Structure formats: C-alpha cells, structure tokens
Amino acid sequence: MSYVRSFTNVKPPARYDGLPWTGASIQEVDDLANDWATVDTPTFSDFDTDPARPKSRSLTANHAQLDPAYYRIQWIDGGGSIAYSDTFYVDDNA
After folding, report:
1. Which of 69, 53, 52 is nearest to 61 (CA)?
2. What is the SS3 assignment for the chain?
3. Total-model pTM
4. pLDDT for the residue 93
5. What is the Cα–Cα distance from 35 to 10, expressed in whole angstroms?
6. What are phi and psi of 34, to 5 degrees?
C-alpha cells in the first residue's frame, strides 16, 4: 500500500555559492536508528534566481510506504551537493 505525503512551505537552506537547488529527494524511515529510503525525487523547473534567499517549496511524495513514519527532504544541486531539512513525523492514525 502506498501513501501520499505532502509537505508545504518547506524552505531549503540558503546557498552563498550562487548555485541553486535543482531538486529534492523525499526520504522516509520508521525508526530513526534505521537507514532512510527514498520514496520520490521531484526536480525543479523554477530554480531560485538568488540561492541565498531560496523560496519555500511544496512537495508531494506519491510513493510513501510507511505509516507512521519519519520524513526528511534531501535538497540536491546540479553538482551533487546535498543538504537536509528538519525531520517530519507523520501518523495517519493519530
């Protein structure tokens, strides 16, 4: 069974090297002691014109497999650099 998870107004970290974030990887895990699994990898067509002031993004994962689960956004640039968002906890039964 798959779950749909939406994350609204998540802001990537500021960049001071002039390179914008070009996409993201939405990851989930059932226990923070376990390895994270990627469930969706959205790409951006509207790059930030000023990476030092990135805009907030709304992202949706259509292939989440766990409930409840922890989620995080892995921000990715064109050169392979990454940064992580804070962790989100989602429990449909709560």
Report:
1. 69
2. CCEEEEEEEECCCCCCCCCCEEEEEEEEECCCCCCCEEEECCECCCCCCCCCCCCCEEEEEEEECCCCEEEEEEEEECCCCEEECCCEEECCCC
3. 0.91
4. 84
5. 22
6. -95, 175
Q: Do residues 65 and 81 lie in contact, with contact meaning Cβ atoms separated by under 8 Å? A: no
Give the pLDDT confidence score for residue 15 in this predicted structure. 96
| Burial of 73 (C-beta count, 10 Å sphere; 0-12/13-18/19+) | buried
Distance CA 7, CA 36 (A): 17
Give dist(CA 75, CA 51) in Å, integer: 12
Q: What CA–CA distances, in Å, run from 33 to 28, 29, 70, 75, 77?
A: 12, 9, 11, 21, 27
